[in-house]
Amino acid sequence: KMPGMSGIDLVRRVHELDPNTAVIIFTVSPEELTPDRAADLKIDCLLAKPVDPDVLRQTVDMLLNPMRQMPRPSQRTSRYAEELLVAAPAMSELVARPAVLTPAPVPAATGPLGQRLLAVRAKKTTDPLSEAPVAMHFTSSRPGKSGRSYSDVQIEQMRLALKDLAMEPDVTCAMLADISGLVLTHWSRQRDINVTVVAALAVGNTLAMAEISRNLGQCQPGRLVIHEGQDLSIIMATMDDLLLLIAIGPQASLGWARIAVMRACEDILRITQGQFAR
Fold first, then answer.
1. Is the domain defined by 130-272 classed in CATH 3.40.50.11030?
2. DSSP letter at 181?
3. Is residue 187 within 8 Å of 136, Cβ to Cβ?
4. The dihedral of CA 205, 210, 211, 212: what is its sign?
5. Torsions phi, psi for 24 (to 5 deg)
6. Coil, helix or strand for 190?
């Protein structure tokens, strides 16, 4: 016991000082800490004593570097979430039955990393993007600037690859266009976004950045642009004659978003080369 302070009081004090601090609790009676209580205290992981060293190592690794531990969207399973996020019946019940036990909402500012990861994994199986207020549009068999066209099958594959990225709760919009500004497909959580205008402006920005880079002496133009804002951040990536743009909320990690965008680009490039990612 802490001198003059219980473990629960210590957790509360830590979150008062830094609400983004990840918290792991060790206890001999994990069943006494209900999922609602754990969510209220913003506990990332609840481990039952005695703790298996391998489980502890995996848990710490996941909290320190979540993207290294997080599989691709198409590879994610509930088993993975149960093994890495929790090692106790109370919290595993929270992951296994999200439809019955709903975690407390993430604080308005920023919450612990574990809660964001838990929300991501719960959303994968309980709240498909297609059931959210989403507008979708895609155009097939349309040539780009170089006269290149994509088949209906390739467009559908691109649409599904983009959906994996757009399903992340922090992503508000994901769009794929060619370098001429033609929108191939997009997903968004707002119906009033004029994606045609966004695509045209994104292409113009990309060409402008390439010209700036050339004038500054850069031999190989960059392929990734990050615009960080207080309430919204935008990431744009180019690949061959295609441009991928995503918008993320203020709670999202730019490091995570960069990796997610690069993975999506890899999948889309495989599709354009006839190597389906699925």
1. no
2. S
3. yes
4. positive
5. -115, 130
6. coil
- The structure tokens listed for 32 are 């006494």
Helix (H, G, I), strand (E, B) or coil at 196: helix
- Residue 222 to residues 208, 213, 246, Cα–Cα distance (Å): 12, 8, 17
In this structure, the strands spanning 224-227 and 233-239 are antiparallel
Question: Which residue is it, tokens 């994990």?
Answer: 30
Classify 58 in phi/psi space as left (phi over 0), alpha (psi -120 to 50) or beta. Answer: alpha
Span 225-272, pLDDT tens digits:
889 888 889 999 998 889 999 999 888 888 888 888 988 898 898 888
Whether the model clears a pTM of 0.70, i.e. scores above it, the answer is: no
Continuous segment of H or E residues that includes residue 159: helix 152-166
CA gap 193, 26 in Å, rounded: 47
Residue 86 scores a pLDDT above 60: no
The H or E element that residue 185 is part of is: strand 183-188
* Pairing verdict, β 183-188 and 135-138: antiparallel
Instruction: Name 154's Cβ contacts closer than 8 Å, sequence gap at least 6.
Output: 271, 272
Per-residue DSSP letters for 22-67? --EEEES-GGGS-HHHHHHTT-SEEEESSPPHHHHHHHHHHHH-HH
The residue ranges of every structural domain in the chain are: 7-126, 130-272
Name the nearest CA neighbour of 226 among 215, 216, 217, 237.
237
Q: Round the CA-based radius of gyration of the chain to a whole number and report it.
A: 21
* Amino acid present at 161: A
15 three-state secondary structure: helix
Rounded to whole angstroms, how far apart are CA atoms 271 and 47?
A: 42
pLDDT digits (tens, 9 = 90+) for 26-48: 777 777 777 777 777 777 777 87
Place of tokens 């599904």: 160
User: Distances in Å between the alpha carbon of 201 and those of 142, 149, 176, 211?
Assistant: 20, 22, 13, 15
Segment 176-186 shows an average pLDDT of 88
